[in-house]
Model the fold of this input.
Amino acid sequence: MKSFEVDGVKIEWVGHATFRITYRGKIIYVDPYILDEDPPKADLILITHDHFDHCDVEAARKLLSGKTHIVADASCKGKLPNAIYVKPGDVVEWEGIGIEAVPAYNPSKQFHPKEKQYVGYLIKLGRVTVYHPGDTDLIPEMEQLRGRVTVALLPIGGTYTMDEKEAAEAVRIIQPKYVIPMHYNFLPGLEKDPEKFKELVGDAAEVVILEPLGKLKQ
Done:
């Protein structure tokens, strides 16, 4: 499956943590790093943190038009043109779309320490709320998302984020209606089988496995 649609919200996995979401004619990218061929320009770009595979300035610039708005984690300051910078707890509204920054971190790894205040996003699109958690492990703050998420885009690669087992536990905590696995099979050390994740989730949510539209840059 190359795309998933619910209540007028179309979701495409371009690859790694990069998603393209289309809603009411607006095109939203989250963490543009992997791009497909001749990608449409962005109306809105959301960036979770400053690591190269999430805050890729070259990729973001390819998506810019004269009207593109950018919301980014504060760690990206100075890297992106005319961006609004956020930290966990901040809420931004743009063109009727609600954007809430939520915590993203590793409790016991050095890659994404809590004090950096990296973020994930709750993206509110009409009746649909999409959760893109950025690079995170299973964290207590996910309890606060229970019942608020329609579609959860969850990393399963391990190493820098949750693995399949932890992501399946996150599903049981957050209780989304749908979940789409991401952040696997693009970078070394992140080789995972989404079907295993689907088995672990069971009937806790409907798992939608999307085909990536793009390829890793050579």
